[in-house]
Design a protein that fits this description.
Layout: E1 3-7, H1 12-23, E2 27-31, H2 33-36, H3 41-49, E3 53-54, E4 68-71, H4 80-87, E5 92-94, H5 95-103, E6 108-113, H6 118-131, E7 136-139, E8 156-157, E9 163-167, E10 182-185, H7 195-208, E11 212-216, E12 231-236, E13 244-252, E14 255-260, E15 263-267, H8 272-287, H9 292-299, E16 310-315, E17 318-323, H10 328-338, E18 345-350, H11 354-371, E19 377-380, H12 396-405, E20 409-412, H13 416-426, E21 432-437, H14 443-453
Parallel strand pairs: 1-2, 1-4, 2-3, 4-5, 6-9, 6-10, 7-9, 10-11, 11-12, 12-13, 17-21, 18-19, 18-21, 19-20
Antiparallel strand pairs: 7-8, 13-14, 14-15, 16-17
């Protein structure tokens, strides 16, 4: 196989794989309706800089000499590229198929799982291994800030070695495709599936781990998971009996400090949950024979991933932050981290998907209520929807009512232009404006637009 194409190549997961395949020497091409609509042009240019040819999503890139078409799971069968591939009898596979195939080509493969923290923890592991000369291949969903100056989209680290680090996603069940050398379960919380389903999914994942398993001792739903045939390493910010334990966690300007076995280390990230992510990364590294202090020291240079409590900028004493939080645990962790610092919060939370909001929307509102102060403001536009069939019997207005009943100063403002006007009218010196939500690639641009208008 030498010539491959990706349908939906602008997606976070798909563009990462496209880049890895191009770096491995394959002839790579792709299409995306976002590109055709004039969106995500920075991604398009970054992919083209790696030699990836971008075609319109009209079937023109599906030529007779193509070996396989990889389609995003978000792509419908009615898309022209898919229709032409079927007509030409070109094999069609999914992104998870390719990720699993790549993953199992590596002797020391590491799968990072869990409801929250996968992207940051995967990035941390990849960064530490890269800095310490272990030559990893890392495939992530987020942009690594440390690698923003490299050619391409910075959600991959590519080296010719025997280590591969990936995110193992439970939301679509693709976690079942991986048999990792080392598996990490960062936490288990309700998001896209019920707790009963998740516990079975993660126990089966643990059973397939071949060398080591890393478990969050602070997560009550993870504690019962085990694989007695392999080495288990636990991490905690609460329990000193855990194998990797951090104490004396302190919020400082621009980051957090913590103590690991008597030695103090610093993270350039805020929030206790990021210390927990760091411990998870350190624990994984120890299973590869890396000294825990060396791993912690390397992490002091880690700058984080885009859209994970990312500081966009400050103007007139007002700070704008871009954040990916979209489920109850992520929302609670982000807001709690922000409340470690002074200043009112003005949060625009854009929910995505009607089904996820029916399942977790009320819990998300409770997460805001439990962590926001009386002076803080929550704003919600309409639920982000990219098309298709959906039960639309829940709305942002319904969720705002839940938040208000819980005591949150909450406002339903359907349109983003009106949200912007409201935020600009409300913001004052000392405030933090947080643009929060997932899936919508225009949210980072909106946060920067807000900053520019302050």
């Amino acid at each position: 196989m030498t010539k491959i194409s990706f349908c939906g190549i602008s997606g976070n997961g798909v563009c990462a794989l496209a880049q890895i395949m191009a770096l491995k020497g394959f002839e790579v091409r792709g299409s995306d309706r976002a590109f055709d609509n004039g969106l995500d042009q920075d991604r398009k240019q970054a992919l083209e800089a790696l030699g990836i040819k971008i075609y319109p999503q009209d079937g023109s890139g599906i030529t007779d000499d193509l070996d396989v078409l990889y389609a995003s799971t978000a792509v419908e069968d009615t898309i022209a590229d898919v229709k032409v591939a079927k007509e030409k009898h070109i094999p069609i596979k999914t992104r998870p198929d390719l990720l699993a195939e790549l993953f199992h080509q590596y002797k020391h493969n590491i799968a990072v799982s869990g409801t929250s923290g996968k992207t940051t923890t995967t990035a941390m592991i990849g960064y530490v291994l890269d800095v310490l000369g272990q030559k990893p291949c890392m495939i992530d969903g987020g942009y690594l800030i440390n690698y923003m100056d490299k050619k391409g989209i910075p959600n991959v680290i590519y080296n010719e070695g025997d280590i591969c680090v990936i995110e193992a996603d439970e939301s679509n069940g693709t976690i079942e495709k991986y048999n990792p050398y080392i598996g990490l379960i960062n936490n288990i919380g309700e998001d896209h599936k019920s707790m009963d389903e998740l516990k079975v999914l993660f126990q089966n994942f643990a059973n397939r781990c071949q060398h080591g398993l890393v478990i969050n001792a602070d997560c009550p739903h993870s504690q019962g998971i085990d694989n007695p045939k392999i080495k288990k390493v636990t991490f905690s910010i609460k329990n000193p009996k855990a194998d990797i334990y951090a104490s004396d966690i302190k919020a400082i300007v621009g980051g957090t400090t913590y103590v690991l076995d008597g030695k103090e280390f610093k993270l350039n990230l805020i929030g206790k949950f990021n210390v927990s992510n760091a411990l998870a990364a350190i624990a994984v590294c120890t299973l590869l024979g890396i000294d825990k202090f060396a791993a912690a020291k390397a992490l002091e240079g880690f700058l984080g991933t885009k859209r994970r409590l990312e500081l966009v900028g400050s103007k007139n004493g007002i700070t704008v932050i871009d954040d990916f939080a979209h489920n109850p645990d992520k929302v609670a962790a982000s807001v709690a981290a922000l409340k470690d610092y002074a200043g009112r919060l003005i949060v625009m939370f854009q929910p995505h998907g009607f089904a996820p909001m029916k399942q977790t929307g009320k819990d998300i509102m409770k997460a805001f209520a439990d962590n926001m102060g009386q002076e803080d403001i929550l704003i919600m536009p309409d639920i982000y929807f990219v098309g298709g069939t959906a039960d639309k019997s829940i709305s942002s207005a319904d969720l705002i009512k839940v938040a208000q009943d819980l005591g949150v100063k909450a406002h339903y403002i359907p349109k983003r232009d009106d949200v912007e006007k409201f935020i600009l009218a409300q913001a004052k010196t000392g405030d933090r404006i947080i643009i929060m939500g997932a899936r919508d690639n225009t949210l980072p641009d909106f946060s920067r637009k807000i900053l520019g208008e302050l």
